[in-house]
Amino acid sequence: MIEVNDIVEGSVVGITKFGAFIELEDGKKGLIHISEISNQFVKDVNDFLKVDDKVKAKVIHISDDGKIDLSIKRLNEDEEYLEKLEKSKAMFEQKLNKFLKQSQDRLTDLKKHQENKRKFH
């Protein structure tokens, strides 16, 4: 059962002025509106998609009568967001590890300083 926010794959089976019809793996059809194809301005759907192209898209709406609205643009935005999040996590871990190492080095120096102080007093 297809739900909103699912990632689906299918083949382009038709192109119109306003978008592309996609036949999904389960035989259902969905529409990628021209505004949901790319972050770039899309004047002609044919510049981005061709019949028989395999596409991956995000389900953005399912109407009461079962019509499925899809988006390649939002899928790409989600993937870009996740990549940025992963990079951010990696940077945070690097900074945390550097901080912990510096803290450990300072603690070691402090302990040595205190030991030396005791030896000489």
Automatic annotation (TrEMBL):
<dbReference type="GO" id="GO:0003735">
    <property type="term" value="F:structural constituent of ribosome"/>
</dbReference>
<dbReference type="InterPro" id="IPR012340">
    <property type="entry name" value="NA-bd_OB-fold"/>
</dbReference>
<feature type="coiled-coil region">
    <location>
        <begin position="75"/>
        <end position="102"/>
    </location>
</feature>
<protein>
    <submittedName>
        <fullName>General stress protein 13</fullName>
    </submittedName>
</protein>
<feature type="domain" description="S1 motif">
    <location>
        <begin position="5"/>
        <end position="73"/>
    </location>
</feature>
<dbReference type="InterPro" id="IPR003029">
    <property type="entry name" value="S1_domain"/>
</dbReference>
<dbReference type="Pfam" id="PF00575">
    <property type="entry name" value="S1"/>
</dbReference>
<keyword id="KW-0175">Coiled coil</keyword>
<dbReference type="GO" id="GO:0006412">
    <property type="term" value="P:translation"/>
</dbReference>
<dbReference type="GO" id="GO:0003729">
    <property type="term" value="F:mRNA binding"/>
</dbReference>
<dbReference type="InterPro" id="IPR050437">
    <property type="entry name" value="Ribos_protein_bS1-like"/>
</dbReference>
